[in-house]
Every structure is written in structure tokens, then in C-alpha cells.
């Protein structure tokens, strides 16, 4: 499969994940944007039903044509030919196909980046594409692993958000601290996107969801200063594909598959 054929020919993408935000949401925004701006991309999502987890999932998990090489979700089916697992790898792969102008430092991603010869957009402050790549990957990793996964883990672990001395509270503090770091870094950019980019990169899609997921769960996760994150939300939501996505109420209410989620969120929503 050559880079030219992949970039100009028809690309069929099917994302498979549970009917919740979880690990896939940042990637959903990326795919919505990609499909909107690249008319050769046919993107749809196949949902795994959380309610069917005890019955349907074991069967789907055992079937590698559905659950991919790692037998977990999300997975991305590419042209009914390739199945990619691992959220960050999927994100980087899409980026690498010049759909949002970036590639990654991750080993698999490097391979694809070399094959496809994609090297992002350097700026006067970061003129080396490898360094730019590392910077943007650092942001995406932090937003995904530390904030999004961290906040979702809090829903599973149901920490007492008022007891700052409890062992479980450190996860809340960790999410808040990383969001603070992301906000500070974003403020240093001359544009609304990380590292002076004029179009969103993987860093912006993941940070956008990181901010939204934390805020939507509870303000306890938010740092005092969210100015740059608020601005990022605004510009991301002005993008036609994402504006449509939010107007159509496509954002799912459910964050995780935790059976205690609703009860926990109701409980903490009463705490200011
Ligand atoms: N590192 C992987 C983790 C994927 C993962 O743990 N997925 C969970 C759902 S959020 C899963 O598929 N669990 C079902 C199972 O392991 O049977 C990623 O980021 O994509």
C-alpha cells in the first residue's frame, strides 16, 4: 500500500468501541474532522453495547477480526484490510496519513511515518520535525494517559472528592496537576493550538477531550486557571465537523462502563 494510493484513494474507516466516551472520544473528534475535510474518507462507528458486555463481548473479544490483536477496544478497521489497536497508535496512524499533518515517535508510528514520508509542520520556534513530533506526542500522551484515563479511573474507583488526605485522592490531584501543565503549555503558544500550530494536531484533539471529560465529571479536577483550555474548546467547537457533532448531540452521556457511574456522578454533583 503506497502513501499516494492511501492518501488519494477511497479510505474506509470503522472505529469499534463501547457506547461511551472512555478511551475513544478524542479519537472520535479526530475522525469526524478527518471525514469532513477528506471526501475520500468513509468513516463510521460500530458500537459495542455496554449493556451487552456479559453476553456479546466475550464472543467479540475472542474474534480477532473484531477485537484486533490485543483483544481490547478501541480498534480501527482500515479498508476492511487492517485492524489497529491501542488508542494512541490509532491516533498517530490517522495523523500520519497527512489527514491532520502529523506523525509520531512511537515505534510503529515511526515505521509508518517513514513509509509515508510525513513530517508535520515545523515552525520558527521548533524547526526540527523530530523535536516537534516529540513535543506533540508528549502532550497527547499526557492528555490521554494522565488526564482522560486518570479521570475515567476515578469513576471506577469512586474516590471521596472531599477527603484530600485519602489515598485515592492522589488520582484526582494528578489529573488536576496535569491539566494545569497542559493549560500552562498551551498559553505559551502564539495560536490557540499547541506549539504555534495553525491547525489542530494530535495534541489538541487529546487535550480538548481531556479538558471536557474532566470538567464534565466534576470541577474538582480543574486547575484554577483554565484560560487556554477554554479557548481551545471554543476553537475546536467552531470547526464545522465538531460543531455538527455537538449540535446533533452525538457526545455520549456515559463516560465509562462502570455499573456505579451514574450513582457516583449524582453523588459528587451535589458537592461544590
Ligand atoms: N492501551 C489500550 C487499552 C485498551 C483497553 O483497556 N480497553 C478496554 C476498554 S476501555 C477493554 O477493551 N476492555 C475489555 C477487555 O479487556 O476484555 C488503549 O489505550 O487502547
From TrEMBL:
A Gene Ontology BP annotation from the UniProt entry: glutathione metabolic process
EC class of the enzyme, as a word: transferase
Residues of the GST N-terminal domain: 11-120
All residue ranges annotated as the GST C-terminal domain in the record: 130-260
InterPro entries from the UniProt entry: Glutathione-S-Trfase_C-like (IPR010987), Glutathione-S-Trfase_C_sf (IPR036282), Glutathione_S-Trfase_N (IPR004045), GST_C (IPR004046), GST_superfamily (IPR050213), Thioredoxin-like_sf (IPR036249)
Top-rank lineage group of the source organism: Eukaryota
GO molecular function, a single term: glutathione transferase activity
Family: Belongs to the GST superfamily. Mu family.
Function field: Conjugation of reduced glutathione to a wide number of exogenous and endogenous hydrophobic electrophiles.
The protein's name: glutathione transferase
Amino acid at each position: 500500500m503506497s502513501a499516494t494510493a492511501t492518501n488519494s484513494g477511497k479510505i474506509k474507516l470503522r472505529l469499534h468501541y463501547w457506547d461511551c466516551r472512555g478511551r475513544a472520544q478524542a479519537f472520535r473528534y479526530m475522525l469526524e474532522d478527518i471525514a469532513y475535510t477528506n471526501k475520500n474518507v468513509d468513516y463510521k462507528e460500530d458500537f459495542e453495547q455496554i449493556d451487552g458486555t456479559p453476553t456479546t463481548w466475550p464472543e467479540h473479544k475472542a474474534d480477532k477480526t473484531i477485537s484486533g490483536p490485543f483483544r481490547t477496544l478501541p480498534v480501527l478497521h482500515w479498508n476492511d484490510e487492517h485492524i489497529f489497536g491501542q488508542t494512541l497508535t490509532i491516533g498517530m496512524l490517522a495523523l500520519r496519513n497527512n489527514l491532520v499533518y502529523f506523525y509520531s515517535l512511537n515505534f510503529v508510528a515511526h515505521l509508518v511515518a517513514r513509509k509515508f514520508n510525513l513530517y508535520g509542520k515545523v515552525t520558527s520556534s521548533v524547526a526540527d520535525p523530530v523535536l516537534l513530533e516529540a513535543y506533540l506526542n508528549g502532550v497527547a500522551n499526557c492528555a490521554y494517559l494522565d488526564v482522560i484515563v486518570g479521570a475515567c479511573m476515578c469513576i471506577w474507583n469512586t474516590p471521596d472528592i472531599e477527603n484530600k488526605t485519602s489515598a485515592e485522592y492522589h488520582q484526582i490531584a494528578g489529573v488536576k496537576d496535569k491539566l494545569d501543565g497542559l493549560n500552562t503549555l498551551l498559553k505559551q503558544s502564539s495560536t490557540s493550538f499547541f506549539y504555534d500550530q495553525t491547525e489542530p494536531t494530535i495534541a489538541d484533539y487529546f487535550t480538548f477531550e481531556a479538558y471536557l471529560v474532566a470538567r464534565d465529571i466534576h470541577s474538582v479536577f480543574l486547575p484554577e486557571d483554565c484560560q487556554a483550555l477554554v479557548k481551545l474548546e471554543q476553537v475546536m467547537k467552531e470547526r464545522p465537523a465538531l460543531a455538527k457533532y455537538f449540535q446533533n448531540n452525538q457526545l455520549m452521556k456515559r463516560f465509562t462502563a462502570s455499573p456505579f457511574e451514574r450513582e457516583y456522578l449524582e453523588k459528587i454533583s451535589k458537592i461544590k
